[in-house]
Amino acid sequence: MNCMKNVPGKNCGHHVAIYTLSTCGWCKKLKRLLKALDIEYEYVDVDLLPKSEKEKIMKEAGKHNPRESFPTLVVDHGKEVIVGFKKDRIREVLL
Amino acid sequence: MSTTDILTRMETDAAENGYYLCPDKELLDDLIDGLSTNEERYGYGSCPCRVAVGSKTYDGDIICPCEYRDADVDEFGMCFCALFVSKEMMDDPSRMSSIPERRPPEVQKAAMEYDGAMEESKIPMHQLKDDIISVKDRKNSIPVWRCEVCGYLCAREYPPPICPICKAKAERFQQFSFG
Ligand code: SF4
Question: Minimal Cα–Cα distance from A19 to chain B, Å?
Fold first, then answer.
């Protein structure tokens, strides 16, 4: 999706996309953890999108997490989805 | 409102209701910043961890402290964002981690549809408003609790940790039935 922003990292064995809000505490924790683990990822802060794009992205996120809650982490385009900030699960799946 | 004012307001609210503010300082600062951003952006402190649409009618249930806080602190020891936590969580913060979303999906969906409709003027607003009211009316079998000390009444799954009015403890609450 073109509104995704890329954050480079050395660990790029998986494609990692996260749906976040710029104001959300758990989302910030998630970004910090991925950065600390040097995992490459792309993210979108949904609250900062213009309305029309917001709806589209919410639908897209909803395919992976029907509750459309934040943060949602999608591994390899949907092979694995981690809803919320779950440290141990993230390490398990991504490292 | 400045972040210091918001923090003070939340501290007061937590103390009044027998809760504590997030013991993780970094997370607490992020949440207060988020609330301050939302207050500036929407004119009210919408939940920093949920998507808002900028209408008080549709965001009303997620203005902090949100409608879901008490049930979440009762069940998980913390609210969805972790801004408010229970005494038990305060004593053992290592147990803190993301909890599931309690806001009913149909409420969020109605809000998002309103958001889209505002953009394209697809759906008349009164129609959406009726929809959301009926959605909210459906979840109405919550018990009512009465503080035996001062008579304060509240509707929630369990009695509050303390009475927000007279500070009596949870044990002093009795389930109340009408008639
Ligand atoms: S989840 Fe917590 S921080 Fe978010 S609105 Fe509810 S009470 Fe406030």
Answer: 11
- Say if CB B60 and CB B66 are below 8 A apart: no
Report how far residue B43's alpha carbon sits from residue B97's, in angstroms, rounded to the nearest whole number.
29
Which residue would you say has higher pLDDT here, B159 or B131? B159
A36 CB near a chain B CB, below 8 Å?
no
Contact call for residues B61 and B136 (beta carbons, < 8 A) = yes
**A26 at interface of B, judged by CB pairs closer than 8 A:** yes
> Are B119 and A51 an interchain contact pair (Cβ–Cβ within 8 Å)?
yes
Minimum Cα–Cα distance from A27: chain B residue: B49
Q: CB-based contacts of A52: which residues, under 8 Å, 6+ apart? A: B116, B119
Q: What is the DSSP string of A39-83?
A: B-EEEEEGGGS-HHHHHHHHHHHHHH-TT--S-EEEEGGGTEEEE
Contact A84 B99 (CB under 8 A): yes
Q: Is the pTM of this model over 0.80?
A: yes
- Write down all domains in chain A, each with its CATH number in brackets: 5-94 (3.40.30.10)
Residue A37: count other Cβ atoms within 10 Å of its Cβ. Answer: 15
Tell me the pLDDT tens digit for each residue of B98-146: 999 999 998 998 888 877 666 444 444 444 444 444 444 445 578 899 9
Q: Mind listing the domains of chain B with CATH numbers?
A: 3-99 (3.90.460.10), 142-176 (2.20.28.10)
CB of A24 within 8 Å of any CB in chain B?
yes
- The sign of the CA dihedral B169, B170, B172, B173 is positive
Q: Is B161 in the pocket of ligand 1 (CB under 6 A)?
A: no
Q: Which of B27, B37, B47 most suits a substitution to test ligand 1, by most atoms within 8 Å of the C-beta?
A: B47
